[in-house]
Specification:
Elements (H helix, E strand, L loop, with lengths): L1 E6 L6 H13 L6 E6 L15 E4 L8 H14 L3 E4 L2 H14 L2 E7 L10 H9 L5 E4 L2 H6 L7 E3 L15 H8 L5 E6 L8 H14 L3 E6 L5 H5 L10 E4 L5 H5 L4 E4 L12 H8 L4 E3 L5
Helix pairs in contact: 2-3
Length: about 300
């Protein structure tokens, strides 16, 4: 069987992590031939280069590039996949007419959240116009299927999974704490992107309140994104000595391992979670979790 996976990029993120974990599992199946389509060369998960998966790059010259459609057409014509599994709405939309033309089974795996659709918005129109034509629609939460009103006929919930090999050979907590300059303090941390979806303002305000009452706590901020500078500027001089800011750290599990509490605050005006990878990482390392009650 031949499977073609399509995704915009392999930058740091939930769906990107899950695709890599899936490919790691499938590499043991000798009856599968797999290729990957990326529309961006931004690759954070370098594990992909160890999986013997051919990567096809469809680099767009502009946001809506018709040439990408014909490039994908050529890839499908040559590779002749039995299944196309798309991991975001853009590549799924590109792939849909090609799949129908070549009679390829097409899976839309783009539902990774449970954010209500705004009436007449592009996602609303796109789901109404295209979702009936996919052979299968996968969400990582039941809440996501409900929001998109996906029927049981072609809708499936496959929750995110976790590979415990990721936490099997970490540095000791003592060693990591020493490298971060953490002595006796308790540690509260949050791993999330700096986008409107994540409520960093609440996390930082909470840190200010706690540190006004006690100073034996370290707050760790891990993430990157377009709002990184504006949000980290909210960390004022009064608390800066008790806050560690990491725009990137690999492996992130080593930092999470020093947390006493893992936090995920979500801005529900913009986003409702599906199944959060951050929460699974906190739990896998035995941390209690404080999270916004929303979505999946």
């Amino acid at each position: 069987m031949k499977i073609l996976y399509t995704i915009d990029a392999l930058k740091r993120g939930g769906k990107e992590r899950q695709l890599i974990e899936l490919l790691k599992g499938l590499k043991y199946n000798k009856n599968l031939e797999i290729e990957l389509v990326l529309m961006n060369r931004d690759i954070h998960y370098n594990d992909i280069f160890n999986l013997n998966v051919k990567i096809n790059y469809l680099i767009r010259s502009k946001k809506k590039d018709v040439k990408s459609f014909f490039k994908l057409y050529k890839i499908c014509k040559e590779f002749k996949p039995d299944i196309i599994h798309s991991w975001d709405s853009m590549t799924a939309t590109y792939a849909l007419p090609i799949a129908k033309l070549f009679k390829i089974i097409i899976i839309n795996g783009s539902i990774r959240n449970a954010t209500p659709l705004k009436l007449f918005s592009f996602p609303w129109f796109n789901s109404k116009l295209t979702f009936p034509f996919y052979d299968c629609i996968i969400s990582n939460s039941l809440a996501g299927l409900k929001i998109y009103n996906i029927s049981k006929r072609n809708g499936y919930c496959i929750n995110n999974g976790f590979d415990f090999e990721r936490v099997s050979n970490l540095k000791s907590v003592k060693e990591t704490r020493k490298s971060l300059g953490i002595c006796y303090e308790n540690v509260i941390g949050m791993v999330a992107s700096f986008t409107p979806k994540k409520d960093w303002s609440t996390f930082i305000e909470s840190a200010k309140i706690i540190l006004s009452a006690r100073n034996n706590v370290k707050f760790i901020v891990i993430g990157n994104g377009p709002l990184f500078e504006s949000k980290t500027k909210l960390i004022d001089k009064k608390i800066i000595n008790n806050v560690i800011i990491l725009s990137d750290y690999d492996p992130v599990e080593e930092i999470i391992n020093v947390f006493d509490i893992g936090v995920l605050t979500t801005d529900t005006d913009y986003h409702k979670e599906g199944i959060s990878n951050s929460i699974m990482e906190y739990m896998a390392l035995g941390n209690p979790v404080i999270a916004t009650d929303n979505g999946g």
